[in-house]
Amino acid sequence: MFSFFKKKPKDVPVETQEPAFEEKVPEAMPEAAAQKSSWLDRIRGEAPAAPAEPQGEIFAAPPPPAEQKQSWLNRLKAGLSKTSSNLTTLFVGAKIDDDLYEELESALLMADAGVEATQILLNALKKKVKDEKLTESEQVKNALRTLLIDMLKPLQKPMVLGRHQPLVMMIAGVNGAGKTTTIGKLARHLQSYEQSVLLAAGDTFRAAAREQLAIWGQRNNVTVIAQESGDPAAVAFDAVQSAKARGTNVVMIDTAGRLPTQLHLMEELKKVKRVIGKGMESAPHELLLVIDGNTGQNALAQVKAFDDALQLTGLIVTKLDGTAKGGVLAAIARARPIPVYFIGIGEKIEDLQPFNAEEFVDALLS
Predict the structure, then answer these.
(1) Binning pLDDT at 50, 70 and 90, where does residue 64 land?
(2) Which Pfam families match (predicted)?
(3) Residue ranges of domains in the chain
């Protein structure tokens, strides 16, 4: 059905679609002097100054409409409502005593915050209550909010564009985490930043994965490099070479989903990474792991295993729109504080947004 799947990788033309976003910034030209711009104050691209303007000017994409932002926050709160309900009810008319702390400990553990993060939060909260002589339950709740934000803040870092030409991203994750869909959404976000994108279907063993990526390529008017079968590393290598020849800004390489316990498959990921490096020195520049926000402490185990194998540079947390508890980010912040570039709460393009610690904690405690 698709013309993508030849024995040799082949560039695939796709149909032009109407852009989903209107926010635009000046076209990025990484070979010129880089200048930072801010998108929603978190995702940054680098673009040269206009010819008649001095270097160093900041180009900011217009913020989303207020109603769109509020809709996003409301859906994030709805996605984390299970944890929010368990935490916020503790402070309704509560007495500040050991019983409250015990109930809070149970609530944090049930939210997948993990033993270490939970104990650190409780010890810090007790100290804060004592030092500041807090006597009202609402004051204690606000203190917990401050501590949670401080714990998650190290995860709030921007993805910087334009550092390399092309910028090569390798995306990993287990089957079912939403990896391929996330790649499609991220491609559209990058396009709204005037970045040209090329996709590589590195999951050569699953026809469904290649077809899904091809569909996203058509939606976004993005070329997809694919092979019906063969070596994933070869597909990744060809994609990087094609992007270099075309002058493409960003290459995103999908990889086969696998469990971190499947050691032979993890070795294959390492091979893909090595081959990409042969195709372009210093690449891949971003090694991203997509994790399902519903998997609890298993998500932390995935982060540790993939980080040990690949040295991850960023995370994308998906599916925070159902039974997700959200506390696992606290566990990740303590065990492996790898930047969380994006969080996802649904299937729409706009449902993938930059992670903001304060917004996330407010959703947990609202």
Answers:
(1) low
(2) SRP54, SRP54_N
(3) 71-154, 159-359
339 confidence band (pLDDT: 50, 70, 90): very high
86 annotated ligand binder: no
Q: Does 173 count as an annotated binding residue?
A: yes
| 292 in a known ligand binding site | no
Query: Is the CB of residue 321 less than 8 Å from the CB of residue 77?
Result: no
Cα four-point dihedral sign 99, 102, 104, 110: negative
112 is in an annotated binding site: no
Place of tokens 């206009």: 50
Determine the length of the chain: 366
The pTM for the full model equals 0.80
174 a known binding residue? Answer: yes
Q: Is 233 annotated as a binding residue?
A: no
Q: Average pLDDT, stretch 148-158?
A: 96
> Is there a binding annotation on residue 320?
yes
What is the CATH number that goes with domain 159-359? 3.40.50.300
- 56 appears as a binding residue in the annotation: no
User: Three-class SS of residue 45?
Assistant: strand
